[in-house]
Amino acid sequence: MQRTDFSKMACSIARTLDVIGEPWSPLVLRDVWAGLNRFEQLQADLGISRKVLTERLNHLVDQGVLERRPYDRRPRHEYVLTEKGADLVDLLMVMTRWGDKWLAGETGPPVLYRHHTCGEFSGVDLRCAHCGEPMHANDVDPLPGPGATA
Amino acid sequence: MQRTDFSKMACSIARTLDVIGEPWSPLVLRDVWAGLNRFEQLQADLGISRKVLTERLNHLVDQGVLERRPYDRRPRHEYVLTEKGADLVDLLMVMTRWGDKWLAGETGPPVLYRHHTCGEFSGVDLRCAHCGEPMHANDVDPLPGPGATA
DNA sequence: AACGTCAGTTCCCTAAGGGAACCCCGATTG
DNA sequence: CAATCGGGGTTCCCTTAGGGAACTGACGTT
Prior knowledge:
Strand order of the largest sheet of chain A: 1-2
Shape of chain A: globular
CATH architecture of chain A: Orthogonal Bundle
Structural class of chain A: alpha+beta
Oligomer: homodimer
Number of domains of chain A: 1
């Protein structure tokens, strides 16, 4: 429902949620990333209601995460990731890793990712963008930044 | 609303959404991580309805992401991250980085994170857990894994 | 001219969020 | 020992958003 508006909060997490925090949005992004670019494909694969799919796609396009482009002279479009949207795939990869670790159980992960660079099936690991060492929950101190208390 | 059940899908992203995909959940997690551990603190800081906060906390406890522990002989509790929950902070840090990059605008990020190891203000970067090289949207091929098609 | 396809729209029904008031329990106060 | 307080929820009502199925509109094709 989320009637509360997260976009005005002085928090990058809240603002990000305003873009992809609604139900289905991350799954729509996942599918588009995986090459399901058309309305009918997305609707069939997700089982989402057409109404909600329309709303989500419009929102993601408005936010500059997806781009709607015609692929025919008939009114047909497909949705592709913008650079901003491709950057969001980082988030999907971290979700995948967490789900693989904590929720996959005995059967193992449903999807594997092969890293082009090394050729191995692997997941992501978080590193400090500055020094390259691991960076997780207990490795950082949060402090107010320039855009604080909006 | 999310009446559709994501937990049964053969996708670690969908399963993860079942745990923290509901509105407010990531913000609750952020606050608990930041040291706001009690019901009243969370309610006041977030402005969330008490009803929904109760629901979210129960769900996060049920999922093993938070632990409810008494801090007084009166019926008083506080919520703390489990190991499973601390691992989810990775997700928050990636959201922070994305929001900082794409949504913060002129004023700059509202919160900065100092990395203990190097002492610098920095964000996270994604690396392959196997070879240590960068790993982003276009660096991987998805393939069916052992737990596919549940 | 009839038909098919993609990409939505419309409508109704139910379920979930917002908000405010209320409640319970143990500790403190007079 | 009754009155009060404060944390941590419940309950109730209202509004909004999701699910599902039917309908529409703009093109092509036969």
